[in-house]
Amino acid sequence: MTTEATATNKTLGINEIKEYLPHRYPLLLVDRVVDYELGKTITAIKNVTVNEEFFNGHFPHKPVMPGVLMIEALAQTAAILSFMTMNVKPDENSVVYFVGIDNARFKRPVEPGDQLKMDIEILRTSRGIWKYKATASVDGKVAVEAELMCTIRANEKAGQ
């Protein structure tokens, strides 16, 4: 019996996550979905390790996860919820674009060894634009919060 089948605790492992996201190493930033409610919320985690490529340059003397990558991890988590809500798995032509990032606030650094817990709530969807309340925390302390707006489009091939 998998926990995904239970009504109260819905999870996705990395192989299931890869079915909903086109991202791959080194830019796949969601390790596990620990709970979700279609059309409403999702909670996922990113295990931050010293082996991450970005720590080589950000910063060698004091490794800190870049804020833009925390926002990207939140957006990837939101995309998983959106695709699952639409009951669609993206194909090689699906692309999720940022439309806006509002009220982003960075509250604490994220370092190697931290587990980034990402909570997403769908605020609304209209005309193909999804708006989310996004919060990432470490040990119950908010690291970053923002309102994200994204849209899902088919990638147009160059020259067409």
From TrEMBL:
Annotated active site: H58
Purpose: Involved in unsaturated fatty acids biosynthesis. Catalyzes the dehydration of short chain beta-hydroxyacyl-ACPs and long chain saturated and unsaturated beta-hydroxyacyl-ACPs.
UniProt similarity note: Belongs to the thioester dehydratase family. FabZ subfamily.
Predominant localisation class: cytoplasm
Keyword Lyase recorded: yes
Keywords: Cytoplasm, Lipid A biosynthesis, Lipid biosynthesis, Lipid metabolism, Lyase
Compartments reported by the entry: Cytoplasm
Name of the protein this chain belongs to: 3-hydroxyacyl-[acyl-carrier-protein] dehydratase FabZ
EC numbers, comma separated: 4.2.1.59
Species in which this protein is naturally found: Telluria mixta
CDD domains assigned: FabZ
